[in-house]
Design brief:
The complex is a heterotrimer of chains A (291), B (306) and C (411).
Chain A: H1 2-31, H2 38-55, H3 60-88, H4 97-120, E1 134-137, E2 140-143, H5 144-166, H6 168-178, H7 180-185, H8 190-215, H9 223-237, H10 242-263, H11 270-282
Antiparallel strand pairs in A: 1-2
Helix pairs in contact in A: 1-5, 1-6, 1-8, 1-9, 1-10, 2-3, 2-4, 2-8, 2-9, 3-4, 3-8, 5-6, 5-8, 6-8, 9-10
Chain B: H1 6-25, H2 28-53, H3 61-77, H4 83-107, H5 110-130, H6 132-135, E1 141-142, H7 151-174, H8 176-186, H9 188-193, H10 198-224, E2 226-227, H11 229-232, H12 235-248, H13 254-269, H14 277-291, H15 295-298
Antiparallel strand pairs in B: 1-2
Chain C: H1 3-13, E1 30-36, H2 41-59, E2 68-74, H3 79-91, E3 97-100, H4 104-117, E4 121-123, H5 129-137, H6 139-142, E5 145-147, H7 152-171, E6 175-181, H8 186-199, E7 203-210, H9 218-227, E8 231-236, H10 241-249, E9 255-260, H11 268-271, E10 280-283, H12 295-306, H13 312-331, H14 336-344, E11 348-349, E12 354-355, E13 378-383, E14 386-391
Parallel strand pairs in C: 1-2, 1-3, 3-4, 4-5, 6-7, 6-8, 8-9
Antiparallel strand pairs in C: 10-13, 11-12, 13-14
Helix pairs in contact in C: 2-13, 3-4, 7-8, 13-14
The chains are: A mainly alpha (291), B mainly alpha (306), C alpha/beta (411).
Chain lengths: 291, 306, 411
């Protein structure tokens, strides 16, 4: 009974972690950018979805769509207004670009968090689930929303896999992540590829943000935590490795759930953090990293 | 590089005298703001030694600051050590933490080290909450003793501490240690080929950075009369330290001080807009970082190429 | 300080920082500082409650002709910011007293400064027992501090009194699990629960404490369900939405009562998408319930001015500002000690009940007096989108009832 419960609960959480971190790792893989405003983008999606649905009464579907759309816009602003200017800046030496992008996106995340707190206060909210009710799985009462979330997340990840592996543009994306210089020589606009990957990222972060908001809630105070957990999962899995991110998401999700059930909910995050330190120390490139 | 024109030395001396005489004219509130800013300045300068010179991406300055602060606060509150001794204990705790961080730093770099340092902060935070019995947990630790309740005295302590720390850090950065760190930060193999023991220097850099971070954290505790996660450990404090250092101008040491004073004074000036002040400060910092990557010091014309 | 000196300082520290107040008219305002967390619902309520009280007092002629001027500062939930702001209000604005914060951690950091600077300080929302125990510990040095709200021990007593009258007497509930967030204010609360729940006939099967940043409550509810209690007695303030939503979404077959502070706010229905249906919480007041003749006029004026209903900390802050104004009038002075002594004599009708402070001998020195003759708070329950008062019985406007998934024991 308890085992089944852990299995189901851990699966839903892990799947959300995976979806949330996937865009994050994709951006890094293709353009070498770690976007520390990640959590901010996810919370924007959830807050907009909640506001349109619950406060303005447009219904959960309109809310969810608008949330994803606004998140996409915010992601493009992040790219066009912050990341690109720094990458193109001559005043920033190449070896320090990473730190500048990190610092700048971190600041951008703070700005997003503060604006959300100003507009909606920092009190947490929950996005209304698209499907209500519970269902019994092997004797465990499970909200249908949890199953729905896992299904949507896997559908989105499946679509992403098809896009990368079965389409022209996807293969270019893959090529860009392996060797950007060669791709430019082949005459492809690297800029266009980057823009494309940021669009995908915006959509992924938006969908993950809305789903997460309906499962675990959301609010401006969630911003740093969401960024942190995506960062953790992505580094654990190996920066830029999509399959590594998926595996790491499930490892972290299940370790947290097992700890919460069997040890104490207060210690939920500790074992995963210790595991992370050990893994990075023994194997700095992460579980499936390339470098 | 280490020769500074006489005229600038004189200007610096006048500036320092004015700073020291400040309490004669300014009211307690302004002194209070600057006192906090000065301790922050030491945080940022210590961070700059690690990043600017050694090239180590340390996302966890508050791990070192927090060890210093809680080490000092707990030895005063629980063991009843007098303030000076408690500050020494705090500094030692921070140095131990710094050396512990240096070990992974020998193998890792970039975002990996960044994450380790970030995790170290989270683990320290968890430890403080879990051992709430001795650390005060979420509630914070109240220390019985404070440095002084006079704002002028607190100001002078902070100013003197900042100047001495700044001077030492500056001299270190301009010494052979700074050069070696910089060389090793950019190309470890080349530095090793030249016969430098990068490992030893790196550990030393972490220890020095930790020493001053810890001292500043300890002083801050005895200024505020309390140590709490939100004041000395929280990631957001670390973010502010990094922003201050980059904003002021990295790889300059004094840039960290300028950035800190700017951030804190700007925060106070923006107080009338209340809740939005953090937003505006972040915006200013973002604009400076994107448009003027060399920070506020880089805006000074005569520093080009220095 | 002379104006010349101020100008000297301002030249270095930024001109805008030291604005010289040259308002030397006959009716010099009396400055009162408010420290709060404006980004949060209870924090905003502190600022609102104080603003409303000050406006009303000024409209009625102020304090012997002198208007109250509020300085409201956001401490961003940070002890450093709060201490700096506290010092600023004392030294720069010359505030005669400072009121605020609903966060025990922040209040505890401010208390030593109130003592050191001899500044009257009224805490209006934070609940840790330590706040007034601190006053008792060294009364002479700490007498400047007033805990103008109930210590957690009293909150626990109110929950037990309310649970006895409703859950036990009306619904024959016999077992409970205490489930509190791990924070300063819930330690004494849990201690209070553990000692008083058995006395009213609710056996405590377990006491679960969870981290305030917990996001998934499924494991906790699962564990509780296996114990089969009748009711969960909560101690929540930092959390609220998430555990409430998961309780409803997962149809946890256990009633939810105790203190769920956020459920006391009328926006909670929207924040939880209605998941709060059937939730019982201890609170300061309930809509439409006249605890005293001042309660409803206050609520109406508040809703009219701000467009939403007051959170608990608005009541305590509003009462505190009135108590302070009353003390200032009686003290005929703005010096700290006369204000403190006048505040100690407070005995007035507030919005929460009869407002009076305990003496130095009490364990909770300078905290509000508790009891049917003073302040007890109410228990309210969300029913069909409305907050209904179910306790004290003489004020109740509804009888408790529970959602379909919560079984009620047959006597």
């Amino acid at each position: 009974m308890l085992a089944i419960q852990i299995l189901i609960d851990g699966f839903a959480i892990s799947t959300l972690y995976a979806l949330g971190a996937l865009g994050f790792t994709l951006i890094f893989g293709v353009s070498g950018v770690l976007n520390l405003a990640h959590g901010g983008l996810m919370v924007i999606a959830a807050m907009i979805a909640w506001y349109l649905d619950t406060s303005l009464g447009f219904g959960p579907y309109v809310g969810a769509l608008a949330g994803v759309a606004v998140c996409l816009v915010a992601a493009l602003v992040t790219y066009g207004g912050i990341v690109r200017p720094i990458e193109n800046s001559r005043a920033v030496p190449a070896h320090e670009r990473e730190l500048f992008v990190l610092t700048a996106t971190l600041l951008w995340g703070v700005m997003i968090q503060e604006s959300l707190s100003y507009a909606f206060t920092n009190s947490p909210i929950t996005v209304q689930p698209l499907i209500a009710g519970t269902v019994s799985i092997l004797g465990v009462r499970t909200p249908i929303n949890e199953i729905f979330i896992a299904a949507v997340a896997w559908a989105v990840m499946g679509a992403l896999w098809l896009l990368v592996n079965r389409t022209q543009v996807g293969r270019r994306l893959l090529a860009a992540s392996i060797n950007p210089r060669a791709l430019t020589l082949l005459g492809f606009e690297l800029d266009r590829i980057y823009l494309f990957v940021w669009v995908i990222y915006g959509l992924l972060a938006g969908i993950a943000g809305v789903l997460l908001g309906s499962f675990l809630g959301s609010g401006s105070d969630y911003v740093p935590g969401l960024t942190g957990s995506a960062f953790t999962i992505v580094v654990l899995g190996g920066l830029g490795s999509v399959s590594g991110t998926l595996i790491a998401a499930y490892i972290v999700g299940y370790i947290e759930t097992v700890t919460a059930y069997l040890v104490s909910p207060s210690l939920r995050e500790v074992p995963a953090l210790i595991l992370l330190v050990v893994v990075i120390y023994m194997r700095p490139q992460g579980l499936l990293g390339r470098r | 590089m280490s020769t500074i024109p006489k005229s600038r030395l004189a200007a610096l001396a006048v500036f320092l005298i004015v700073l020291a005489l400040f309490p004669l004219g300014a009211n307690g509130y302004i002194l209070g703001v600057l006192t906090t800013a000065f301790y922050f300045a030491v945080f940022a300068m210590s961070w700059d030694l690690l990043f600017g010179y050694a090239g180590e991406v340390n996302f966890g300055p508050t791990f070192l600051i927090g060890l210093g602060a809680y080490g000092a606060g707990m030895s005063n509150a629980l063991l009843g050590l007098p303030v000076p001794l408690a500050i020494v204990v705090g500094a030692l705790a921070a140095v131990a933490g710094g050396v512990a961080l240096a070990i992974p730093a020998l193998r890792l770099s970039g975002p990996y080290l960044g994450l380790i340092t970030l995790v170290s902060v989270l683990l320290l935070q968890q430890a403080i909450v879990i051992f709430a019995g001795v650390t005060g947990g979420e509630i914070g630790l109240s220390v019985p003793d404070v440095l002084s309740i006079s704002s002028a005295a607190n100001y002078e302590y902070a100013l003197a501490f900042m100047l001495v720390s700044g001077l030492i850090l500056f001299l270190i950065s301009r010494s052979s240690l700074g050069m070696i760190l910089q060389a090793a930060g950019q190309d470890q193999v080349a530095a090793a080929a030249l016969g430098f023991n990068a490992t030893r220097h790196k550990i030393l850099a972490f220890a020095v950075s930790a020493l001053f971070s810890g001292l500043a954290g300890a002083f801050l505790v005895f200024y505020l009369g309390t140590a709490s996660v939100s004041a000395v450990v929280d990631i957001s404090i670390g973010v502010r330290v990094i922003i201050a250092a980059v904003l002021g101008g990295r790889r300059t040491i004094i840039g960290g001080a300028i950035g800190s004073v700017f951030l804190i004074v700007a925060g106070e000036l923006l107080r009338p807009i209340g809740q939005l002040s953090t937003f505006v400060v972040a915006l200013i910092a973002l604009v400076v970082i994107v448009l003027f990557p060399d920070g506020l010091l880089g805006l000074l014309p005569h520093r080009r190429g220095a | 300080m002379s104006r010349k000196k101020t100008a000297f300082a301002a030249a270095f520290a930024g001109a805008a920082m030291a604005v010289v107040p040259v308002a030397a008219q006959a009716a010099k305002p009396i400055v009162v500082g408010i420290t709060s967390e404006i980004g949060t619902i209870p924090g905003k309520a502190i600022a609102n409650g104080a603003t409303l009280a000050a406006e009303q007092i000024n409209a009625a002629g102020g304090i012997d002709g002198r208007p109250i001027k509020l300085v409201i500062e956001d401490d961003h939930l940070s002890t450093t910011d709060a201490i700096r702001s506290f010092q600023r209000m004392v030294r720069q604005d010359h505030a005669v007293a400072i009121i605020g914060t609903f966060v025990s951690e922040v209040a505890l950091a401010l208390e030593p400064w109130a003592a050191r600077l001899h500044e009257p300080y009224m805490i209006t929302g934070a609940a840790a027992n330590e706040l007034s125990e601190y006053v008792h510990k060294d009364f002479k040095a700490h007498q400047y501090i007033f805990h103008a709200y109930m210590p957690a021990a009293y909150l626990a007593r109110a929950v037990c009194d309310a649970s006895k009258a409703t859950l036990v007497d009306q619904f024959h509930m016999k077992t409970a699990v205490v489930m509190s967030e791990d924070a300063a204010w819930t330690k004494p609360l849990d201690a209070g629960y553990d000692s008083c729940l058995p006395k009213i006939g609710l056996k405590v099967l377990d006491n679960i404490r969870f981290a305030p940043n917990t996001s998934d409550f499924t494991p906790i509810y699962q564990k509780i369900e296996t114990l089969k209690p009748n009711v969960i007695i909560a101690g929540w303030a930092h959390v609220g939405v998430q555990p409430t939503v998961q309780w409803a979404q997962q149809k946890v077959p256990v009633a939810l009562a105790g203190i769920n502070a956020q459920a006391g706010s009328d926006v909670f229905w929207k924040a939880t998408n209605g998941a709060t249906e059937g939730v019982i919480t201890g609170s300061t007041a309930a809509p439409g319930v006249a605890i005293t003749p001042k309660t409803l006029p206050f609520t109406d004026a508040y809703v009219k001015k701000f467009g939403y209903s007051p959170a608990y900390s608005a009541y305590s802050t509003y009462d505190a500002v009135y108590a302070l104004a009353d003390a200032l009038k009686r003290a005929k002075s703005t010096k700290p000690l006369p204000i403190v002594h006048a505040l100690e004599q407070t005995n007035m009708v507030g919005t929460q009940g009869q407002i009076a402070f305990q003496g130095a001998k009490s364990k909770f020195a300078h905290a509000l007096k508790y009891g049917p003759d003073y302040v007890t708070g109410v228990a309210l329950q969300w029913q069909a989108g409305q907050q209904k008062c179910i306790w004290p019985l003489k004020l109740a406007n509804a009888k408790a009832k529970f959602p379909g998934f919560v079984p009620v024991p047959k006597s």
